[in-house]
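Structure tokens please, single chain.
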Amino acid sequence: MSSEFRDFRDWIAAWVAPRDTSGPRPQDLRASDADRERVIMALTDALADGRLSPVEHEERVEAAYRAQTLGGLAELTRDLLPPEAQPIVMHDRPVMALFRTENLGGRWVVPAKIPVTSFGGKVNIDLRDALLQSHRVVVQLAVMAGTVTLLVPDGVLVTPAPGARVRSFKNETRPPDSPSPPIIELAGFVYGGKVIARCPKPPKRGFFRR
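Here you go.
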């Protein structure tokens, strides 16, 4: 049996297996003050262009300040913005790009395992504003002739998992300073494609700055 066939068989088994529901649901996680401010900014934009009346805006802003969970905040903007533009993203599905581009980013809750499939497509995963549910996140790859790009903040270690068949991995991140940094582990397989990990570029220094 070829290694390619075993990889494909294992990937299918992982997809049909029951999902791990032992951890908290993303919508049940506690909201921060920064999360509330994100939602209030979206509500204020909706007031400015007429999507909300002044009364509706006031009611939703008060509800945002009272909201204790991410799910409670997400409900306040659900009818105002498309899913990809929401200030709080409740993303809990596998990521799949079949000859197309899929983008995942913003303020979203990252589960301990992210299944990612790319057949001739591109997957862009932005973790800069994300909430990690676990100190170690496994990106379970099934990539054929596709590209997966991870944009991670400084201080995060991106590394292939033991036994992973990631034949093309370009790591452009900066080494973490912490002895125990958050870890993004690349598992699964990549054939005829590539995985790229990047950190955001540091701001340019002015000519006269020291």
